[in-house]
Design goal:
This protein is of the alpha/beta class. 40% of the residues lie in helices and 14% in strands. The chain binds pyridoxal-5'-phosphate. Pyridoxal-5'-phosphate (PLP) binds next to helix 3 and helix 4.
């Protein structure tokens, strides 16, 4: 089976982790690897500060916690995303309000944002889905007009740009994931970047149970969201490779584009208009003209040894979120249709042209037989 993703780890990561363990950099409170990784990643994102945490979910949770919002306040989130985005609000007793998607880019539809703002709205949390940056100039403009905070979910967009600015550097905070399938990985892990020194200090305090002096007396209710030292050591090695990984992701996407543009009935990822798409995953939407459904296409690909994943179940359809006090029903027809018709193909940076050809030829063959069935 060709997997949807394989991390590209080697001897350098293994040696870095082993060395960190030998130096005693086990938990999150020791050694130099964590501050060095934070410095390197902040620098990469063109931000002044970075705070390493235990996952992308923890990064989002901590970012919202730092805003000290009131129960029942609302945060606008992309409807089409991993539930971690919405849970960052939910677990802070804040209500996530889904913003429907745009048909072309699959990102949140910026045109809808203002219509969803109420007196309870405090922040906008857009997701740069599959590595394509949201129009952050417009999002930040709306946020300024309505006095809202912007937190970017960059779990899938390391190194993506809007204009010539990196994702994560537009909002008050940018949250990244280093899960195994992300553009760079520490196994589990996450990072918050910011240009706000006070906020960075607060995030560091809250991630470490808000320890101050005297030790064991706590003014704030913090969290243990610490990253381990040996994960940070791995992150430092991965950081050096990030541009190489992105170049490979773009190569994979361009190769898919080349072969799949000849197959009818498939919507390919929209090319970036203004910036760099990093193609965390190569997504497709199956249109009616393709002849068979997305589910059938996925099944036939699986039978041919190609693993795939569906797009996300939108936040307006999540039973877990509907039980929250203050829940507000919002229609998200585009995100719902993407959930039914979208899926992504194997997207490892190591994917060879030969393997991509094999996958696209399988899709072409399925398309030909499906269309023949439709016209027969
Ligand atoms: C958009 C998005 N946000 C948040 C997360 C959560 O990150 P993590 O798995 O590191 O907790 C993920 C993915 O895993 C994601 O894709």
């Amino acid at each position: 089976m060709i997997p949807v993703f394989e991390p590209d780890l080697g001897e350098e990561e293994i040696a870095a982790v082993a060395d960190a363990i030998r130096r005693g950099e086990i938990s999150g409170s020791f050694g130099e690897s964590i501050p060095r990784f934070e410095e390197a990643f902040a620098h990469y994102c063109d931000c002044k500060f970075a705070v390493a945490v235990s996952s992308g979910t923890a990064a989002l949770h901590l970012a919202v916690a730092a805003l000290e919002l009131k129960p029942g306040d609302e945060i606008l989130v992309s409807a089409s995303t991993n539930i971690a985005t919405a849970l960052a609000a939910y677990h802070n007793n804040v209500v996530p309000i889904p913003v429907d998607s745009e048909r072309q880019t699959w990102n949140l539809d910026v045109d809808l944002v203002e219509s969803l703002i109420t007196p309870k709205t405090r922040a906008i949390l857009p997701v740069h889905l599959f590595g394509r940056a949201v129009d952050m100039e417009r999002v930040c403009e709306i946020a300024r007009t309505h006095n809202l905070v912007v937190i970017e979910d960059c779990a899938e967009s390391h190194g993506a740009t809007f204009g010539n600015r990196k994702t994560g550097s537009f909002g008050e905070m940018g949250c990244f994931s280093f899960y195994a399938n992300k553009i760079i990985t520490t196994g589990e892990g996450g990072m918050i970047v910011t240009n706000n020194a006070k906020l960075a200090e607060k995030l560091k305090l809250l991630r470490n149970l808000a320890f101050t002096t005297p030790r064991f007396r706590h003014e704030l209710a913090g969290y243990n969201f610490r990253m381990t030292g040996y994960q940070a050591a791995m992150g430092l090695v991965q950081c050096k490779k990030i541009e190489k990984v992105i170049a490979e992701k773009i190569r994979v996407a361009k190769t898919y584009d080349h072969f799949l543009s000849k197959v009818g009935g498939l919507q390919l990822p929209a090319p970036p208009k203004n910036g760099r798409h990093v193609y965390w995953m190569y997504g497709l939407v199956v249109q009616p003209e393709f002849g068979i459904t997305r589910d059938e296409l996925q099944k036939r690909l699986r039978d041919s040894g190609v693993d795939t994943r569906t797009f996300f179940c939108p936040m307006n359809l999540q039973p877990a979120l509907q039980k929250q006090p203050g829940y507000r029903r919002v229609e998200c027809p585009v995100a719902e249709s993407l959930w039914k018709t979208g899926f992504y193909l194997p997207s490892s940076p190591t994917l060879s042209e030969k393997t991509i050809r094999q996958i696209t030829e399988t899709i072409s063959h399925i398309a030909e037989t499906s269309k023949a069935n439709v016209t027969a």
